[in-house]
Design a protein that fits this description.
Layout (H helix, E strand, L loop, with lengths): L2 H30 L4 H34 L1
Helix pairs in contact: 1-2
Length: 71
């Protein structure tokens, strides 16, 4: 394996573990009785909205930088 391939494999494994932890944590909190289902759903929706805003902001800044380099 080259270093780049190893880096990509590690990134995929870490990303998958983070995604699984995010999915399981909300369900565990409901099962454990610490939160209501609507609390967890609201948290997921809030996180999705925040993630969407971050992605849109990133794309906006990237388009500005690209436009400046094309001039």
């Amino acid at each position: 394996f080259s270093l780049l391939v190893l880096e990509e494999v590690i990134e995929k494994v870490v990303n998958k573990r983070i995604q699984n932890k995010c999915k399981i944590t909300g369900l565990w909190l409901i099962y454990d009785g610490r939160h209501w289902a609507l609390d967890v759903i609201g948290g997921y929706l809030y996180g999705l909205v925040f993630l969407f805003m971050l992605i849109m902001g990133y794309e906006f800044v990237k388009s500005i930088i690209t436009a400046k380099h094309l001039r």
